[in-house]
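Thread amino acids onto this structure.
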């Protein structure tokens, strides 16, 4: 591999993770809006998984409801900015690239929904947690990868 190609390969995992998280979350949100009725539970696996369309005006898992959408967007963009600004302080591993890609892709998908609608579209109901969406799942998986990367360490 030529020197100029190494950086592109390293960034590739993060870009793929971002594209997967963002694309899947936006597509799933649109499908939920089109095929689910607001507040009506559609059971997929009894007692374990339902699809329930909700409009989340709060942040993750419906916390801080009632804040104006502009405040929520500024908060999300600030978190995204901090993550990107500090990217050089993370270990240089595939887990970090994929983790940041999932976190940023999921967060970006939620920001897009909040700007478009004034709320985030939630639809996954596991009955032991507030209703959430695929973007939230990507953020949690990405955060988990980042924690693992920090615990394992690596070149900075």
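Threaded sequence (156 positions):
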């Amino acid at each position: 591999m030529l020197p100029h190609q190494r950086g592109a390969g390293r960034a590739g995992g993060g870009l793929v993770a971002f594209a997967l998280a963002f694309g899947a979350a936006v597509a799933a949100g649109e499908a939920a809006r089109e095929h689910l009725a607001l507040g009506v539970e559609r059971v997929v696996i009894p007692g374990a998984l339902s699809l329930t369309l909700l409009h989340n005006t709060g942040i993750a898992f419906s916390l801080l409801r009632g804040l104006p959408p502009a405040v929520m967007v500024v908060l999300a963009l600030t978190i995204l900015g901090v993550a990107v600004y500090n990217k050089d302080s993370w270990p240089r591993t595939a887990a970090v690239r994929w983790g940041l890609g999932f976190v940023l892709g999921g967060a970006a998908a939620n920001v897009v929904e909040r700007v478009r609608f004034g709320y985030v579209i939630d639809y996954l109901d596991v009955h032991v947690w507030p209703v959430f969406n695929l973007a939230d799942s990507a953020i949690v998986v990405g955060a988990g990868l980042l924690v693992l990367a920090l615990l394992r360490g690596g070149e900075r």
